[in-house]
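Q: Two folds, back to back.
A: First:
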Amino acid sequence: MSRLGDLIRLERTRQKLTYKQVARKCGVSEKYLEEVESGRRIIQDEQARRILRTMGMKQQTEADFTLDDIAATVDLQSAVPSIAQAAERKLTKKEKREGTEEDASGTVAGSIWLDALAGVLKHVPVMNAAMKEVGHRLLPITNGKIEGANPDKVYYLMAPDNDLRGFRVMKGDLLLVVPAQAPVDGAIMVLDTPFGKIIRKTVAMPNFQVMLQKFDQACESEIKNLNAITCVGRCVRLEAEL
């Protein structure tokens, strides 16, 4: 099924519009609209935007989600029920408070189901070793968290070198980092140094010490006292280009 077709179907059903009403508004045939929503016909992005705008959907919300972001990220087939329920709850609250969903121009004031996505998706920044943002990824929020952490504290770190090649982490790979102030035995940790962020595999040692491992051509280890290192995060996910 077409993701953009799903977007159109969800917005149309949210507004309780028939195929005929949308087709008349947008200057397309009912058959064309049905085929787009069912995925039997591919619709161009600009045409989808025009139809959604004509129905009254704003292209962005406070969370700055664009149609491109959503269509490329969200599995709308599985998301439709929960988003529709969230939208319906918001609609009911607004209707009780305001009695209407139309603004002064007579168009629907935003897309409630799209606003609902702001609670389930998060722009997660991609940072380089100098902690400069070089991009972003969209990740789902589950029970208010991403990988068990505050969504605002999570980021991707771009591997600056091949120091962990032997652990399948190559230069340029993206590591999802969650906050951690102490090393975890056997985990890949992000350490703060005067020269920027580095990533090392950590192994717990007795007497409050930790072994830091890197593995490019060969495995190299150094043992440090816990109070001599500064942990800032734990890597919990790897994204690599093929």
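A: Second:
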Amino acid sequence: MQNYIFELPMEVRDYECDLQGIVNNAVYQNYFEHTRHQFMLSKKISFSELHRRGIDAVVVKVEISFKRSLLPSDQFISKLTLKKEGVRYVFYHALFSRDNKTLHASARIETVILVNGKLGFTPELDRIVDEANTL
């Protein structure tokens, strides 16, 4: 079990569901991305501000495990934690029911940092990783 460092309450919108009446698989990536962005903002880090400074976080690999489908109007909690593995910043995500009893999906999303187009690091993310590892 992960030691999650951020949680974001969310709710399924009807238009996110497919003909089967469940959340379309591609929408889960939107949930994970929104969670990452809100997490960064909670740490006073803006992806757009980093970009203006020539620093871009780029997703290089996504692995999603689907456990139980989300349905229209379901309320859930999106959780994440962050680790550094070599040059990659790896976000571990999970979507749980509001009561934390049901895991709907989990993901491992690998990102790298490009500084002016070259592989690099950013002190902002390193600081967050260090904070997460001390919890």
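Q: And?
A: The chain has a mean pLDDT of 94.
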